[in-house]
Amino acid sequence: MNVVNSSGWRPSMGEDGEASALPETCSGDHALMLEEPLIFELAATEGKCGVDFEEVEAEPVAGLARFLRKEAPALPSLAESETIRHYTRLSRQNYAIDLGPFPLGSCTMKHNPRLNEKVARMPGFADVHPLQPAASVRGALEVINELAVWLIELTGMHGVAMSPKAGAHGELCGLLCIRAAHEAKGEAREVILVPESAHGTNPATAAFAGYKVESIPATADGRVDLAALEAKLGPHVAGVMITNPNTCGLFERDMKKIADAVHACGGYVYCDGANFNAIVGKVRPGDLGVDAMHINLHKTFSTPHGGGGPGSGPVVLSEALAPFGPLPFTARDEAGVVHLVEENNAGAFGHTQAFGRMVAFHGQMGMFTRALAYILSHGADGLKQVAEDAVLNANYVLRSCEDVLSAPFGSAGPCMHEALFSDTGLAEHFSTLDIAKGLIDEGFHPMTVYFPLVVRGAMLVEPTETESKVGLDRFIASLRSVAERARAGDESLHAAPVYAPRRRLDETMAARKPVLVWKGEANPAD
Ligand SMILES: Cc1ncc(COP(=O)(O)O)c(C=O)c1O
Fold first, then answer.
1. Cβ of 163 below 6 Å from ligand 1
2. Is the pTM of this model over 0.85?
3. What CATH number matches the domain at 157-363, 3.90.550.10, 3.40.640.10, 1.10.10.60, 3.30.1490.20?
4. Per-residue pLDDT tens for 395-453?
5. Is 452 in the pocket of ligand 1 (CB under 6 A)?
6. For ligand 1, atom 16, which residue shows the shortest CA distance?
7. 201 CA closest ligand 1 atom index
8. DSSP H helical ranges for 315-453
């Protein structure tokens, strides 16, 4: 097949050797998109170098001579201009939040305001070292403390552990607090209840923390089944992990009843606060009976998503769990003043039951400065507006597409920050995957697919508050057009994407057997 689109743009080559169908002169390039080899393949001519190194004449340090290289390292030989062009061309093959919306539900990618970046790059924040004497980093510590105060106030909780490095790391921190609290009472409870619709990290974290996981079914309207949850409660239950708003994009209206029931049996309530961006400034989880909750700074406060690496997932704790929070910890004293508690002053603050530490130092300074910049530039009223706009945008997408895409909980009323669709109603042999791949040809990153698992062929769209109406209308028009093609059984959709640098890849092999190291031309996949 040699598809040419209406503007004459030739599609990229598939993995399946379809290049043979292209003209013989074809290089694989199209328009300004070049078929880019690996940097090692590009460096055909040896002996080139992008930098001039001075000859080193000094004798090697005694005893180190055996470490001297006998041969030059097998680095690609390229001029500076060639290297820059290679990486710039590669960067153009990538989709980015600075190019268009990332409608990924649950994973949330939103515009990171440049003001945040400017603040994070100020030398007083960017260049601090964790081993510097505390007296020389007073400003950085003040930023951590001020952000902590905001998080405590916005969530209505008692204290916060700022150090966890990601949402999932925060979940672990919360569960370790729950375990420490039970142990302090001499109880060894072994079960954590997790709803069916939970993010995969919830049961994984509970299992990692050594708990048995029991699942709670969802009701027909996509929420936690309260009666089923109550039936599972008992002295063996350490706690529940509930995401609110949940991963179907719905508010758990029974949250207070759930918390009361769990507390009555001696358990604690962990709330996965990843979706806090839908309720920030509107609802305080502490008022709903939550004992521990992580906040993904990237989702609510617009820091870049760290993918578990340079991210940040502070955990707010109720008065009941705060005594067990890891060091460093930020908590209110009796007068309500918030203090940073570390090893050297833990005794003075009576914080003597900390379960330990989550990380060596204080956490991600770069994320703290960005998040605080976002909070201060919005103010309390602005944050409320953030939540309202995130919810408004998701409802706009939901209502604009529900006649062409089935919305399983559409009749249950407005959604929160995410619009959930399913593949019900698509023509036979057409699936969620076709919609996702079709969107790539329309110039959009696909939404989250096949999650949450409680919905068949789920498509979870999270527009976030940072998309304009014009941008949303463009996305909606594309989503509608692809959905209509899938409903009508338009066979050409099965070939999508045809305008991307790559066609449909083997996603199972990519996940199970990723080729991460280049081992030479002879056997690259070895
Ligand atoms: C609902 C929910 N819980 C937990 C997580 C895990 O967060 P992280 O990727 O920062 O570990 C995510 C991911 O964004 C999420 O959407």
1. no
2. yes
3. 3.40.640.10
4. 999 999 999 999 999 987 899 999 999 999 999 999 999 999 999 999 999 999 999 99
5. no
6. 106
7. 4
8. 365-401, 432-441
